[in-house]
Write a structure and sequence with these properties.
Order of helices and strands of chain B: EEEEEEEEHEEEEEEEEEEEEEEHEEEEEE
Strand order of the largest sheet of chain A: 1-4-3-2
Distance between the termini of chain A: 87 Å
Number of helices of chain A: 32
Structural class of chain A: mainly alpha
Largest sheet of chain B: 4 strands, antiparallel
Shape of chain A: rod-shaped
Structural class of chain B: mainly beta
Number of helices of chain B: 2
Helix content of chain A: 55-70%
Number of strands of chain B: 28
Radius of gyration of chain A: 43 Å
Shape of chain B: globular
Oligomer: heterodimer
Chain lengths: 694, 349
């Protein structure tokens, strides 16, 4: 079929246009739509929920058939990414709230640190696409260290050591790292008896020592062959040297408030103390280097290996370079063993670039990003970050950066002409909101981010809410709840109206009225009331059963009686109608309840007059109302309608004639021929009877 | 009190415990899910495992999975005679699906695979509420189209019977059995109505709900007290919860809501409301008082209300769309969260 082929071509075209959408379009759902059009075939292209494009092909009505194809455009939202979106929302919302409540710039960073920690705990949860998330976490934590946590400024190098210890394994996936070297030898270590014969043993230790993984080095050294009891050779001196190095490593002073329990090294939190301790410790290391015992060490491997470790401890640049594999490791090694007092950030930047020049690694963007973080180069950081990570990262990382200070704040919060008057921060949030809005399960998160956008947020929120489907009541109520939270009264009215009209169109009258009442749509409600009246007065709803249903409708319509002035008559009309119905029922059965009958008749007359006197009952229904009253006027047992009451009815009829003469509206012509005459006659004769009786 | 979130990676609709009396197996949980990628709605039966009673993260062990014909809008479970169970789901397209669960088979390691019974087109619009009677398995379904049906289950057949049809003038939104012949309904444009199958033609009793101010309210959920069948409670818009005692046919009492009291902790939709099983078991029936009620809301609150005092059990960052309390001791509560997860709450009483 040519039409179908056309559709498929289009589908393919969209697939290509959607870039990586090919994966999701393979799972495109195909629906069949019944054809309902005379034309030979039509193709519609329209946006469906979120980022789904709907292609509907309809063949002609005779042959029937046709179909709708939904194509997911853009990047897919897998369950893991949605989980991240859900779980990071509370922390973000809390931070924005705190910001709105007013904050003290002095300790704002503490709030941001709390925020950063909660986001990290979200990233910590077990994930399927592990690598990407841990990379995300690595970068996130590095930004936290360098931009947020002011309590860590004085021991920044040691923070970097900790950071590398945790994330070295995720930085590079297919190149050598200290982590990969250590891990691979660790596996081997359990299998061999005398590891000191293997150069890799010493290399792995030198690498681990360079980046400060003292516990690993100690554990490795304890595996040294000289510790074995079943020795034949005399290895006492050798063992003593190993032990001496171990001891020195255990005593290595570290400039940090504390070390994790059981880890080697001595934490010193006061800088002058640290300098003193370090000088002392270094002199001990040099003393060992020049010790006479080396000459007595028979094992050449041990001799060279231990010396290498000592060179690392003494900060020999060449050894450090050889022992590390990429510049982050080299940088950490520099801080640990070469220049541990470097706290000036400028110094940090130049060392970082020097290290980068010496040992760069594959992923250019990631490398640039890391060095930008370390050297506080926010603009490059933003540029690279948006390249490496997705919209989630950009929307959430801004608050971290801003905690750094005024410069970053103005960079991110300044409105820019080039961005159409938006700030970078707002742009990031808007983009993320759009991503959220594109999925049927996450759109409810978008308002939180849009609310944090001062310029365009509200407008986009309104647009988002207006686009939600009105066919599902529960969803509509959820949208209304969002409207209530953000005080979007006009939007909630519009949604309620849309749902109301939708319900009415699908035959759910009660529900429709309810929603229209929520929307305060007087016009539609009056039209509806008219329709209901029309149905009742035209006699279509004569059976009591139907009346009961209408009763329900009248009840809802009338429940807002004070608001909907025009509709209050419905309740009265209902009681009038019910009384008439009762009378008929009674008459049909037996006339033995004459008294009851009369009472019902009086009730009907009272409602009738209330209706006509109230001034709210639409005039176009007067005639049918009067016609129905004929039954009461011609009451066989007694005179039911009094003289004055009959006069009122006559006046009403007269008014209809006057209206016709004034050419306002000619209701009388709608009556059956003779009906008006009969009504007049009934009125006149009743008047007669009433006068006579009185 | 301890709670655990169990992410599902799919939209979670309703959650219900299987009303088990047999302690031999773990708690069984029925949940309805909707996968946005495939667009497929499903019903899952999971055993909730946990290492010991108070500590240790619980996990869900899948015991059966059924694909449903339409996205689920209502779910109910019941115990039949002979240790068998039923899960009944109503869809937004108007169909009703009955999934029989064999208690013996559920303990074996194989997944349940018994074909569900589907009754499509029972209603012309969304089935807003279903309820199943224990023992007989009679299923009550009400819809937005204003119809009330009772479906009887025989062997391998579903026998539907239309009880009432309002031709769309009323949209029913909640229903609950009160006895094997009586049930209560609520809806848009309808008062709370008490029906008796022995007296056809209309409700035997009804009561209007007084919503706050001029704006009308929607009822989302209804529960009848398990032992005092003349009591029922409904929850709906504006954080409103009403209690109705059939013996006094005056207006229902408003227990919570925007204007009812100062302690209106919930202002949004109350999605589900239930009598608190724990206290129905522990407290002696004091007929004068309104028994405690548990509810969940759009703004993420799960709380109990007793004598005007509200006790918050959970405050989640997203809507709690559905919850269920186990009928055995009322300690285990399960919630369906908007953020694609099931939350398991274990409380101390």
């Amino acid at each position: 079929m040519p039409g179908i082929r056309r559709l498929e071509e289009l589908e393919n075209g969209e697939r290509n246009a959607g870039g990586d959408g090919s994966s999701s379009s393979s799972a495109a759902v195909i629906y069949s739509v019944p054809g309902g059009l005379r034309d030979p075939g039509r193709l519609w292209v329209s946006w469906s929920n979120g980022n789904q494009l709907q292609l509907s092909y309809i063949e002609n009505a005779v042959a029937g058939g046709g179909r709708v194809t939904e194509i997911h455009l853009g990047e897919g939202w897998d369950a893991e990414r949605r989980r991240l979106a859900y779980d990071s929302l509370p922390a973000f919302a809390l931070l924005q709230n705190q910001r709105q409540l007013g904050y003290n710039p002095g300790d704002w960073w503490e709030h941001v640190l709390e925020y950063s920690k909660s986001i990290r705990s979200v990233l910590d949860q077990p994930t399927q696409g592990k690598e990407k998330t841990s990379m995300l976490k690595a970068v996130w934590e590095l930004i936290e260290v360098f931009y947020v946590d002011r309590s860590a400024t004085w021991w920044l190098p040691e923070r970097l050591v900790d950071w590398l210890a945790e994330y070295d394994k995720v930085l590079l996936s297919d190149e050598d790292t200290v982590h990969s070297k250590v891990a691979s030898f660790q596996r081997k270590l359990s299998e061999i008896q005398f590891p000191e014969d293997d150069v890799a043993y010493w290399d792995a230790m030198a690498s681990a020592l360079s980046v400060g993984w003292l516990d690993v080095v100690i554990a490795f050294l304890r595996m040294h062959g000289s510790y074995r009891l079943d020795q034949l050779d005399d290895r006492q001196t050798e063992n003593g040297l190993v032990e001496a190095v171990t001891l020195l490593i255990m005593q290595m002073p570290r400039l940090r408030p504390r070390l994790p329990d059981g880890s080697p090294g001595v934490a010193i939190g006061f800088k002058p103390d640290f300098s003193k301790a370090r000088e002392k410790w270094r002199s001990q290391v040099s003393k060992l280097e020049n010790s006479v015992f080396w000459a007595e060490c028979n094992h050449r491997g041990t001799l060279l290996g231990l010396k290498k470790l000592i060179q690392v401890l003494l900060g020999n640049v060449d050894v450090l370079q050889l022992s590390t594999f990429h510049w982050m490791e080299l940088l950490v090694a520099h801080f640990l063993h070469l220049i541990p007092f470097s706290l000036v950030l400028d110094g940090m930047r130049s060392i970082a670039s020097k290290c980068k020049g010496l040992k760069s690694f594959g992923d250019e963007d990631l490398q640039e990003l890391l060095s930008a973080i370390i050297s506080n180069d926010t603009e490059i950081l933003l540029a690279k970050c948006s390249k490496v990570f997705n919209a989630w990262m950009m929307a959430h990382v801004d608050d971290l950066l801003i905690a750094k200070g005024e410069d970053v704040r103005s960079l991110l919060e300044e409105d820019r002409q080039t961005l159409g008057g938006l700030s970078l921060k707002e742009l990031h949030r808007l983009v993320y909101s759009q991503v959220l809005s594109s999925h049927s399960l996450t759109w409810q998160l978008a308002p939180v981010y849009l609310a944090a956008c001062p310029n365009r947020g509200l407008g986009m929120l309104e647009a988002l809410l207006m686009k939600q489907s009105c066919s599902n009541q529960k969803l509509a109520l959820k949208a209304l709840e969002i409207c209530r939270l953000y005080e979007l009264d006009t939007v909630s009215t519009a949604i309620a109206r849309a749902v109301g009209v939708h319900s009415l169109k699908h035959g759910k009258k009660g529900q429709g009225i309810m929603w229209l009442q929520l929307a305060r749509d007087e016009q539609r409600l009056s039209t509806l009331a008219d329709q209901i009246l029309n149905t009742i007065t035209s006699g279509e709803a004569d059976s009591l059963d139907n009346l009961e249903h209408f009763e329900g409708l009248c009840d809802i319509l009338g429940s807002g009686a004070t608001k909907h002035q025009g509709l209050s008559f419905l309740a009265r009309y209902k009681s009038f109608k019910a009384a008439l119905q009762n009378i008929r029922d009674l008459r049909r059965r037996e006339a033995s309840y004459t008294e009851n009958l009369a009472a019902l008749g009086r009730a009907a007359v009272t409602s009738l007059l209330q209706l006509l006197k109230s001034g709210t009952f639409p005039r176009k229904f007067w005639l049918s109302l009067l016609q129905e009253s004929v039954e009461l006027l011609e009451w066989p047992e007694q005179v039911l309608v009094s003289e004055s009451e009959t006069n009122t009815l006559l006046c009403c009829l007269q008014e209809l004639f006057l209206a016709r003469d004034r050419l306002e509206d000619d209701i009388l012509s709608t009556a059956e021929p003779g009906a008006v005459d009969r009504l007049r006659l009934a009125l006149a004769s009743n008047l007669c009877r009433a006068i006579l009786q009185s | 009190m301890a709670s655990w979130r169990l992410p599902q990676g799919r939209a979670v609709g309703s959650v219900r415990w299987l009303p088990s009396s047999a302690a031999a197996w773990d708690r069984m949980l029925v949940s309805t899910l909707f996968d946005p990628e495939t667009g497929k709605p499903s019903l899952e039966l999971n055993a909730l495992g946990s290492k010991d009673s108070t500590e240790g993260r619980p996990w869900l062990d899948l015991r059966g999975e059924w694909e449903l014909p339409g996205r689920v809008s209502a779910l109910a479970t019941a115990a039949l005679q002979g240790e068998n169970f039923l899960a009944v789901a109503g869809s937004i397209e108007g169909s009703v699906t009955v999934v029989p669960v064999d208690a013996v088979q559920v303990t074996t390691s194989e997944l349940l695979d018994k074909e569900p019974l589907v009754l499509s087109g029972l209603h012309e619009a969304s089935v807003c509420a279903v309820d199943v009677l224990d023992d007989s398995g009679d299923c009550l379904a009400v819809g937005e189209d204003g119809k009330i049906s009772v479906v009887k289950i025989s062997e391998s057949e579903l026998l539907p019977k239309r009880v009432h049809d309002s031709h769309g003038h009323i949209s029913f939104s909640a229903a609950h059995w009160a006895s094997s012949m009586e049930f209560v309904t609520a809806g848009v444009g309808a008062p709370l109505q008490w029906w008796d199958l022995r007296k056809p033609g209309g409700p035997v009793s009804q009561c209007r709900l007084k919503w706050d101010g001029s704006s009308p309210g929607f009822v989302h959920s209804l529960d009848v007290h398990p032992s005092r069948k003349h009591l029922c409670v409904v929850g709906g818009s504006g954080g409103s919860i009403f209690a109705w005692d059939l013996r006094w046919q005056r207006d229902a009492v408003k227990l919570a809501g925007v204007s009812a009291s100062k302690s209106a902790i919930v202002e949004s939709e109350v999605w589900e409301v239930k009598y608190d099983h724990a206290s129905t078991i522990s407290s002696s029936s004091d007929s004068g008082k309104v028994p405690p009620v548990m509810f969940c809301s759009e703004d993420g609150v799960l709380a109990t209300i007793e004598g005007g005092n509200v006790t918050e059990l959970l405050a989640e960052p997203c809507a709690i769309n559905s919850f269920d309390v186990d009928c055995e001791n009322g300690k285990d509560i399960v919630c369906g969260l908007e953020h694609e997860s099931i939350l398991f709450l274990k409380r101390r009483i």
